[in-house]
Amino acid sequence: MSNMLDTFMNVEVFAFIGLLVWLYFKPNAPDDNERPDT
Amino acid sequence: MFTNPLLIVALAITGAVAVWGIIDTAGLAAFAAYLVGIQFSSRAWFIMLAVSFMLITSVWLALSRYGGIKLGKDDDEPEFSTVSWLSMLFAAGMGVGLLYWGTAEPLTHYLIISEYEDARASASLALFVTNFHWGLHAWAIYALTGLVIAYFGFRLGCPSLVSAPIIKVFGANRLTRSVGWLSDLLAIVAIAIGLGGSVAMGVFQVKEGVDALFGLQDTGLGLTLGIFVVLCLSYILPLTVDLSRGMAILSNTAMAVAGGLMIYILLFGPTHFVMGGIVQAFGDYLSGAFTHGFRTFTFMDDRVGNWFRSWTLTYMVWWLAWAPFVGVFIARISKGRTIREFICGVMLVPTMFSILWFGVFGGVGFYGILELDASILDVVRDNVSGVTFFVLGHFPLPALTIAAVVVAAFLFIITSVVSAAFVLGMFSTGGDLNPSTRVKLSWGVVLGALGLVMILSGSIDAIKSIIALGALPFVFIVLVLVVCLLKMLKQERLGPS
Question: With a cut of 0.90, is the ipTM above it?
């Protein structure tokens, strides 16, 4: 049981890391491409 | 006034934790220890990897071409002089924790390390581990969180909220708003519970100081609660009127007292021993801190594993709990700085100061153990809150120095609670830079109640578990914020697509 819980918690982390990588390479929202007012 | 759902839910959750803790302190502490134990067992590698990733990212940002980007418009100039900015960074990092742990932490590590190593090597290792806990890794967490808030706030005009970067980068839709709302909520919970722990530690220390000053014994919970009530009464006034300048004066006074105390101990203590220890600790830190950030002690026995979880992992999670609070503060004073200046200032200066601080207070403790007798270790084992006062008792004018620590600890707690009530009010009202007195007072009450829970728990270990429970989800949020920052910086360099 504890091994299953451990596996589950780590799979969550792997999925989260995958999500981060995907978010980084995902194109930005189209309406948020304004450059700062410099 | 209380129509904002985030404010209501945040007050309800933190209030419920406080009520649960007051009614059934042991039950809450056991529950927190159980959940944190599971998390730390399964995800220790991830927490250490995440923290090291933040350090590497910070250094890379400072050295990369992004380092020249200003936190503000291109023609914005820094609001504060560099000296004044650096001294305020000191104040942010120089909380009651340093006063509390100055001698106690290195000596606590010494107790366990000396079971595996020679006494003199153990002293060196104990100082190294302490510096690791308070050094670059901790400040990289603060620096990145503050950088995200400052960059999105000052350069892109977003509100100073944890949710703002998420909505800005991924667009405003139902999903991002929900994730943003949840992030704001978790940040509020992490700050509130984290601050409750600091209040308790500060009250424990003030109580020990009063005991030492007046030679009291077995004062028990009565005196502790009395000090807690005085503390609560003391921060009500600053919450009801705008005393931002007064708060700065209180904070600077506490800083000056603490700095003066450090110099006093250095000059009146075994100066050559302490200075030698500081130089060695600096070298040890330079050569070992980066690789230590990846150490998970997986192949060591349970005793070392438990020590790693209850110290290193807890500290890293503790810094994460404070990250939104300290991040907002350091962001606010850093408008007009470049990313490179910001990262170098936020990471290097407080780290150097911590090495000096622990070198002095830890060094004096080790001098006692290695060159005199080891009676201080009994105090570390029996009453960790009294270690600082035990040390001061061996120096000239103990009444004066003990009173100074009591005053500094008290001032640190008041300024922390007032600043935290402001940040919590801001976060829970959609980024309002002037949250109403009623909102700030509500947070003041919740912070006091959470502090009371931690005091009633009566154990530093229980306090650590409860704080870690509140802060653990924030590991994930900080990493999402870092991705938002990196994406936006990349976009700024490439220009609009």
Answer: no
Q: Which amino acid is at A15?
A: A
Question: For residues B364 and B274, is the Cβ–Cβ distance under 8 A?
Answer: yes
Q: Residue B73 and residue A34: Cβ atoms within 8 Å?
A: no
DSSP secondary structure string, B215-232?
T----HHHHHHHHHHHHH
Pick B169's closest partner by Cβ from A10, A28, A34: A28
* CATH architecture for segment(s) B5-491: Up-down Bundle (1.20)
The per-residue b/e assignment along B401-434, b for 16 or more CB within 10 angstroms, e otherwise, is: bbbbbbebbbbbbbbbbbbbbbbbbbbbbebeee
Cα separations in angstroms, B477 against B30, B231, B312: 26, 33, 20
Distance separating alpha carbons of residues B341 and B492, to the nearest angstrom? 19
- Please name the member of B169, B479, B486 whose beta carbon is closest to the beta carbon of A32: B169
Q: Do residues B484 and B180 touch, judged by C-beta distance below 8 A?
A: no
> Which one of B41, B479, B496 has the shortest CB-CB distance to A35?
B496
Which residues in chain A have Cβ-Cβ distances shorter than 8 Å to B158?
Answer: none
Note the pLDDT tens digit of each residue in B403-461: 888 888 888 888 888 888 888 888 888 777 778 888 888 888 888 888 888 888 767 77
CB B281 within 8 A of CB B131: yes
Query: What is the domain partition of chain B in residue ranges?
Result: 5-491
The answer to whether the pTM exceeds 0.90 is no
List chain B residues with CB under 8 Å of A10: 42-43, 46
CB of B177 within 8 Å of a chain A CB? The answer is no
Q: Cβ(B453)–Cβ(B25) under 8 Å?
A: yes
The answer, for A10 touching chain B at a CB cutoff of 8 Å, is yes
Q: Which amino acid is at A5?
A: L
Q: What phi and psi values does residue B70 have, to the nearest 5 degrees?
A: -85, 145
CB proximity B46 to A under 8 Å: yes
Cβ contact, residue pair B41, A6, below 8 Å: yes
